[in-house]
Amino acid sequence: MKKLSELYSGYPDIEINGIKINSKDCKPGDLFVCVSGVNADRHDYVIDAINHGASAIVASKKIDVDVPVVYVEDTNKELPLLCSKFYDYPETKLELIATTGTNGKTTVASIIQDLMGNDICGYMGTNGIRSSSFNEKIVNTTPDADRLYMYFDRFCKSGCKYLSLEASSEAFYRHRLDNLKFKIGILTNITEDHLNIHKTIENYVSCKQQLFKQVSDDGFSILNIDDKYYESTSKIANGTILTYGKKESDLQIIDFKEYIDKTDITLKYKDNLYNITSPLIGEFNVYNLCGSILALIALDYDINDIIKNVVNINVPSGRCEFLNYGQDYSIILDYAHTTDAFNNLYKLLNNVKKNRIITVTGSAGGREHEKRPLMGKVVLDNSDYVIFTMDDPRWEDVNSIIDDLVSISDKNTYERIVNREEAINKALSIAKKDDIILIAGKGSDKYMAIDDKYLPYSDIEVINRYFDK
Predict the structure, then answer these.
(1) Per residue in 329-367, is it b (16+ CB within 10 Å) or e — as a string?
(2) Which residues fall within 8 angstroms of residue 84, CB to CB, at 6 or more apart?
(3) Neighbour count for residue 395 (Cβ, 10 Å)
(4) Distance between CA atoms of residues 136 and 142, nearest Å
(5) Which of 196, 167, 174 is nearest to 109 (CA)?
(6) DSSP-assigned beta bridge partners for residue 165
(7) Do 123 and 143 touch, CB atoms closer than 8 A?
(8) pLDDT in tens, 375-399
(9) 385 Cβ contact partners less than 8 Å away, ≥ 6 residues apart
(10) Which residues contact 229 (CB under 8 A, 6 or more apart)?
């Protein structure tokens, strides 16, 4: 809590309890900041904010209200500076470890917390905010600044020295991470995604690479040397560059052997070989583990101690997660929703499968249509049978989305079941011994986006109900 006069000299000594950018979230004592977004200008919601209790306003346009108004040149740029000051600069009290990439952000950020321990390292990303003191869901992978700095403050107060966070391309596009310096930046991979927001692959790559410009001079840029964009990223990366991958690198992947429930890995570091058994499966998770291990090495952890801790890694919920109900076939829940993610996933499944692969998936509405045909073809080419269904259709017709998914494949080994719960139930009902049932797209999400509503929905709850019958 601060007084408005502490935040802006010359203004009244009224108490400010919080900072808000959503008028409906305002409570008595809040300071409402009129930021501008793609779809809304918060200057239009000032009266609503005041009606909900806002005690003062920060604006960049002239407004006529009966509460104090602080005028600034750009409310979007002002917001993170204001939030930082309000919470006593919590970002400077944390060592920020940020992971970016098309795929693997959640896994890497989670592995780092598991290896370090949630007493000293917090996590923030798709799976919420976690420390030894709290474990909560959040709305965005990388929140807006009003919540971001509030969370920073909570991590500090819970005793965290480090924060492992997912840094999405959209967060850089929306300037949510402006003004931050990162001790460590990690690149997993860059493949085409989110072009509905970024419009071009060049813009998308630029937003991903922005992280490495914000690595501190005494920090580390940890890069996947096998990634297509490694060279261009390395040219703009700040701090010390550390590399991992199959090519000669600081932490080199020498060999790995995949099993249905583990991966045996041989790594090379400083001319020494290290054998690791990881509870994570798939080649993509070998890369994810390497990026995580290098982050700890950069923070002066001993590699032998890190390797001993690998057994403590938890498989992130909804990320190539095996579900066991005593059935004689495998059920895998995964967040895969890009061509690259499916290619990686099927590479693993085809290596370990003993019978059929049956996939349940769809594609989100309101997103780029261009990726759907190739993604659908990859799914059909690698599955013995596919059930196409809804996956956050928003305003789009589900059958039209499925039409896109099947448009360039000549295979007819699929059916359409629009209702996702019915689709999952159908896949489970036709499963035979040693089949693999892959349920992809939603992961551990707790909602289904239909029209402009986020309705309660969970794949795992659907599966639980099926086996509770």
Answers:
(1) bbbbbbbbbbbbbbbbbbebbeeebeebbbbbbbbbbeb
(2) 90, 91, 149, 179
(3) 10
(4) 14
(5) 167
(6) 98, 124
(7) no
(8) 999 999 999 999 999 999 999 999 9
(9) 356, 358, 359, 413, 414, 430
(10) 187, 190, 205, 208, 209
Q: What angle do CA 165, 166, 168 make, to 5 degrees?
A: 145
Residue 173 has pLDDT above 60, yes or no: yes
Residue 172: per-residue pLDDT: 83
User: What does the alpha-carbon distance between residue 362 and residue 416 come to, in Å, rounded to a whole number?
Assistant: 10
Angstrom CA distances, 436 to 9, 148, 165, 246, stand at: 64, 39, 32, 29
> Mapping DSSP to helix (H, G, I), strand (E, B) and coil, where does residue 295 land?
helix
CA distance 432 to 177: 48
Question: Tokens 């996956």 belong to which residue?
Answer: 391
CA distances (Å), 182 to each of 3, 66, 74, 125, in order? Answer: 30, 41, 24, 16
When pLDDT is cut at 50, 70 and 90, the band that residue 319 belongs to is confident
Residue in 430, 392, 395, 434 with CA at minimum distance from that of residue 413 = 430
Mode of pairing for the β-strands spanning 182-187 and 95-100: parallel
Q: What is the DSSP string of 418-443?
A: SSHHHHHHHHHHT--TT-EEEEES-T
In the chain, the amino acid numbered 421 is E
Task: Confirm if 184 and 222 have CB atoms less than 8 A apart.
Answer: yes
User: Phi/psi of residue 187, each to 5°?
Assistant: -105, 120
- pLDDT bin (cut points 50, 70, 90) of residue 316 is low
> How does pLDDT run across 417-437, given as a tens digit for each residue?
999 999 999 999 999 999 999
Please give the Cα distance from 380 to 238 (Å, whole number).
Answer: 42
The per-residue pLDDT for range 23-61, each reduced to its tens digit, is 999 999 999 999 987 678 999 999 999 999 999 999 999
Mean of pLDDT values over 438-444: 93
- Look at residue 5 and tell me whether its pLDDT is greater than 70: yes
Question: Structural domains in the chain?
Answer: 2-86 (3.40.1390.10), 90-312 (3.40.1190.10), 321-468 (3.90.190.20)
Structure confidence at residue 360 as a pLDDT band (50, 70, 90)? very high
Arithmetic mean of pLDDT over the chain: 93
Q: What SS3 state is found at 187?
A: strand
Q: What is the DSSP letter of 243?
A: E
Residue-wise pLDDT tens digits, 120-135: 999 999 889 999 999 9
Query: Are residues 340 and 378 in contact, defined by beta-carbon separation less than 8 angstroms?
Result: no
For residues 130 and 464, give the distance between their C-alpha atoms in angstroms, rounded to a whole number. Answer: 25
For residue 432, count other CB atoms closer than 10 A to its CB: 10
